[in-house]
Specification:
With 96 residues, the protein is an alpha+beta fold. Helix content is 59%, strand content 14%. The strands form two sheets. The protein has a two-stranded antiparallel sheet. It has a two-stranded antiparallel ribbon with strand order 2-3. It starts with a strand and ends with a helix.
């Protein structure tokens, strides 16, 4: 299993951007990254930035609760809530 070195050295460059170096990346991960970048029509470096921005960008934290609410709304209406399920489970255990 070969390991790749993906260059993005994490150091200040004098501007508002930094460089990040990632070492010992597995072949399969490096290949998947290149494939993902090609499918999106981006360079591997641009794909690295996109992945990091999606995972760690400031909007990610701000959108967490709105995303959770949105997903909760998509649940089947009329289905028991988690509170109801926990109570039913507790009540069943008390009967035993």
């Amino acid at each position: 299993m070969m390991r790749h070195h993906i260059a993005c050295n994490m150091q200040a460059t004098g501007g508002s951007m930094a460089q990040l170096t990632v070492r010992n990346v597995d072949d399969a991960i490096a290949a998947a990254l290149k494939e993902r970048a090609a499918k999106a029509g981006r360079s591997a470096e641009a794909e690295h930035r996109k992945i990091l921005e999606e995972a760690l960008g400031p909007a990610r934290n701000a959108d967490f609760f709105s995303e959770a609410r949105s997903r909760r709304m998509k649940l089947v209406s009329g289905a028991p809530t988690t509170t109801e399920l926990l109570r039913a489970d507790r009540d069943r255990d008390e009967i035993r």
